[in-house]
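Hi everyone,

Forwarding the result from last night's run.
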Amino acid sequence: MYQVLYRKWRPQTFSDVYGQPVVTTALKNELRSNRLAHAYLFTGSRGTGKTSCAKILAKAVNCLHPVDGDPCNECDNCRGIDAGTILDVTEIDAASNNGVDNIRDLRDEVNFAPAVGKYRVYIIDEVHMLSAGAFNALLKTLEEPPEHVIFILATTEVHKLPATILSRCQRFDFGRIPPADIAARLQFVAQHEQITLSDDAALMIARLADGGMRDALSLLDQCLSRSREVTAAVVAEATGMAGRGHLFSLSAAIRSGNGAAALELLNDLHNSSKDMERLCAELIDFYRNLMILKSVGKPGDLIVLSPAELEEMRAEAAGVSLEAVLHILDVLQHTLDRLKSGVSRRVEMETTLLRLCDPRLDTTSISLLRRVEALEAGVSVPKTAPTPVPAPATTPATDDVPEPPAPVEEAPPVPAPTAASAAEPVSCDHWPEVLAQISQKSPPLYGVLVDSTAMTDGEKLIIMTDNEMFGALVRADGNKAVLMNAVQAVLGKPMRIIRGRPQPTATVDEASDPLSAFLRQSAQAGISIDMKG
């Protein structure tokens, strides 16, 4: 009979337990020194090894030939405990045996000596499900049990346990297993099961397992029902994920404000039977990674991505502000709650995407902050995708150009020259190319400079603009480096940037105006002309 992977590969010794070195080291030290407690409390999220460690501990205390704190798994006691034929180890499910009578029966049993082993071990799983009366009935026995009795309590919700129970147990907290450890364990299992498992697929399963080894092995089992060669595409298909390509496409539609494109993508995913709740959770994880990338200098410890995925996420993070990311996360979190009880999950996700594409459709305070941020940047929130300005094919890359230290200076209004000379500034013919590069690196800065002109004078570039947002924007979010790099890339050398103000439009000279001259001559000749008609 086929045995699922998480049962087949359940750890048999403390050395087999992945991701819990603190817990396993402490338990092995107690076993080696024979300093065992009478009651243990194992707490942590699901699939982190609580029950497995409890069973290993039960075997280790009754093993006839322990090996450095681990059970030998070869003696009669170890084999009998694994087979369930030795009654000295009892596993109780508190979810179905949570009454006072069940605990009273247990309290009567503990007085009997062990039949085969050295200790009678009681493993009470999901102990938080016991009733208040059952907890009270257990207190005295748990505090002073017979010398041959060991209690091991396991729970995922330790906050539900009374303080009187907590104070009587030696507590061990099982943390979520790091994705790298889960991926390594999956590769180990795949190697012994003759399975081809790619590194990207192992990392994807590890992220989906959310710190639980049992969930990871169950997901791997699910993937094997489709193919013995497990790739990232197989994992996405088996779990109903949207896939990274669709996530990047949705992010691009949200960033550009293109609600129509977002709804079309959602329609394709819905027709492919993708679960809307899973899609919302994937988007939350996607924008959580963007938040970490924009907030932490070294995000490697907080997010698990391959080097190629990390570079893609860095490029995506460069095109969106932290305020926008926080707003999107807030909307998606509320959407995830509503999806669990809503009538139409598709409609819920459609309205959410429209609110994300256009924050003016959202009335929450955090969306107002996003709109204020867009106004401060000098660019209104777009309703549709803006037409990109094409960059010239010969424009060199500027990513590695260091930021020049020279600040952007302020210059008095510069009149337009009538003739080019070495002493006077001349019009910069390549300024549209500079603006094209700026539009790709910093749309807000491009919005401020779109109507500007520029003049060059040797080593100086004078930017003629009346937009009062220019000074504040060029000093924020690295926009100065974007401007200086674009100038150097197009003009071929670093230049000193000076801001100039165009002269106001000159009034019409009355002497050269034909209408003024006609009216003056008419007045001299005594002819009155009524201009009101």
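The longest strand covers residues 149-155.

Cheers,
N.
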